[in-house]
């Protein structure tokens, strides 16, 4: 699905990270492999250290801390918020929606829209697209997009494929109307036939938690996890990304009548270094234009890796100047989405820690 | 095929590979090795293999047949 938007802009990005940082070496003894093997994986995938929430820190805590920071520093006025979108796969509760909890915490005005969206890896793009659509309404002038993924409690500590990768984080992106005839191009694709390539089998209504679902079971590769833990089919996901993402990006650039050389930055979702390097080669983008350093510093926080990528790598630059940026997310759903837009002169573009 | 085989040998951490070599007997055989092979096949041949197909191929020769057959 190809989409176009006019006169919308991002005016600020704030990323929120947990204080707790764990290194790959600290956790090596959890895994069923020789140290030599584990270190080889570290080099290839970019494992190094990751940020993990403290016990009891939930998605709303990160969002509330971030909003509090923006209010205290006069970067956002709570009464100006016309819509609050929360994209998360780790809601505080099944019910009520977590966005409403956040809205209630700050006693925001009643006359607004709150929307929880269940999306992950492509969550930033999906959230932005939703924000753009809302801003087409005359009454909606300022949208606060929250992305929050606190999935570490759902990852088995003895899963060498997922545990070193997982990161917890949240981000707040302010999206507003623009008056400079700017054009934004986007596309969204879905493939539910492979919906179960990334999943948490138990804990929802289809398979409620039980004694059985909490049992740790060894898989073919020697990893241990229970049905309540995240599980991914690495080969299927790798093939999906190589097969679908390059053509999605080329379609986007062609719809915008532009080319790779005209794009300044490719700010992509960060699954792991291996996949991103292969993807950059497959698309034909130089590795200088496509940062791949989020996993090795903070872990993979699903949809939040894109705004975190922006805050971490383009912090000061995007406060002072404007750049043509291609955003992309791909993964759970399967969902894949990309956006081409100018981002710059941001009021804020930083990282705080809680 | 020659360039593919020499890059495959690199992934398997040996000097060269033979058709009869059994995949899971290589010292470094693990999920990362399998993914690297899948990535190599995708890059060189534009074909997509999955873990099960690679495991079922059993040998280097089996892997070559698998690629040619796709």
Round the mean pLDDT of chain B to the nearest integer and report it. 92
Query: What is the mean pLDDT of chain A?
Result: 96
Identify the overall geometry of chain A: globular
- Largest β-sheet summary of chain A: 6 strands, mixed
Strand content of chain A: 25-35%
* Class derived from helix and strand content of chain B: mainly alpha
Low-confidence runs of chain B:
none
Features of this protein?
heterodimer; A: 354 residues; alpha/beta; six-stranded mixed beta sheet; five-stranded mixed beta sheet; 10 helices; globular; B: 70 residues; mainly alpha; 0% strand
Structure description:
- The complex is a heterodimer of chains A (354) and B (70).
- With 354 residues, chain A is of the alpha/beta class.
- Chain A has ten helices and 17 strands.
- Chain A has helices spanning 24-27, 35-45, 59-72, 98-105, 123-134, 234-255, 273-283, 294-298, 305-313, 317-320, and strands at 2-6, 8-17, 21-23, 49-51, 83-88, 113-117, 142-149, 169-177, 183-190, 198-199, 217-218, 224-225, 231-232, 265-268, 322-331, 335-344, 348-353.
- In chain A, strand 11 (217-218) and strand 12 (224-225) form a beta hairpin.
- In chain A, helix 3 runs parallel beside helix 4 (98-105) and helix 6 runs parallel beside helix 7.
- The longest helix of chain A has 22 residues, at 234-255.
- Chain A is globular and about 60 Å long.
- The two termini of chain A are 38 Å apart.
- By secondary structure, chain B is an all-alpha fold.
- In chain B, helix 1 runs antiparallel to helix 2 (31-45).
- The model of chain B has no long low-confidence stretch (mean pLDDT 92).
- The chains are: A alpha/beta (354), B mainly alpha (70).
- Chain A binds chain B through residues 33, 37, 40-41, 44-45, 161, 221, 233-236, 238-239, 242-243, 274, 278, 281-282, and chain B through 28, 30-32, 34-36, 38-39, 42-43, 48-51.
């Amino acid at each position: 699905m190809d989409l176009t938007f006019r006169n919308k802009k991002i005016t600020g990005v704030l990323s929120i990270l947990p204080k707790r940082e764990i290194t790959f070496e600290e956790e090596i003894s959890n895994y069923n492999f020789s140290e030599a093997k584990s270190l080889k994986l570290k080099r290839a995938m970019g494992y190094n250290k990751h940020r993990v929430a403290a016990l009891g820190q939930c998605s709303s805590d990160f969002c509330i801390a971030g909003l509090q920071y923006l209010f205290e520093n006069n970067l956002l006025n709570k009464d100006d918020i016309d819509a609050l979108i929360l994209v998360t796969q780790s809601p505080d509760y099944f019910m009520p929606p977590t966005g409403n909890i956040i809205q209630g915490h700050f006693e925001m005005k009643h006359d607004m829209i709150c929307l929880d969206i269940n999306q992950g890896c492509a969550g930033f793009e999906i959230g932005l697209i939703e924000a753009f659509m809302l801003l087409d309404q005359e009454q909606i002038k300022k949208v606060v997009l929250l992305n929050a993924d606190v999935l570490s409690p759902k990852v088995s500590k003895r899963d060498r494929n997922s545990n070193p990768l997982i990161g917890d984080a949240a981000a707040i992106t302010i999206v507003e109307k623009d008056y400079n005839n700017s054009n934004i191009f986007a596309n969204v694709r879905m493939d539910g036939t492979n919906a179960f390539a990334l999943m948490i089998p138990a804990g929802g209504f289809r398979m409620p938690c039980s004694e059985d679902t909490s049992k740790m079971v060894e898989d073919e590769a020697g990893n241990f996890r229970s049905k309540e833990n995240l599980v991914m089919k690495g080969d299927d996901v790798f093939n999906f990304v190589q097969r679908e993402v390059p053509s999605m990006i080329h379609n986007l650039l062609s719809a915008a009548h532009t080319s790779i050389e005209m794009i300044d930055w490719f700010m992509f979702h960060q699954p792991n270094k291996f996949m991103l390097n292969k993807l950059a080669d497959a698309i034909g983008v130089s590795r200088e234009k496509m940062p791949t350093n989020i996993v090795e510093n903070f872990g993979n926080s699903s949809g939040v890796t894109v705004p975190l990528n922006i805050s971490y790598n383009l912090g000061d630059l995007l406060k002072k100047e404007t750049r043509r940026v291609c955003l992309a997310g791909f993964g759970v759903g399967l969902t894949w989405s990309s956006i081409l837009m100018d981002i710059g002169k941001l009021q804020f573009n930083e990282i705080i820690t809680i | 095929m020659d360039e593919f085989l020499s890059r495959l040998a690199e992934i398997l951490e040996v000097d060269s590979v033979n058709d009869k070599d059994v995949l899971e007997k290589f010292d470094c055989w693990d999920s990362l090795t399998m993914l690297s092979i899948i990535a190599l096949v995708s890059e060189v041949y534009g074909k997509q293999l999955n873990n099960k197909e690679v495991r079922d191929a059993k040998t280097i020769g089996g892997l070559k047949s698998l690629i040619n057959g796709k």
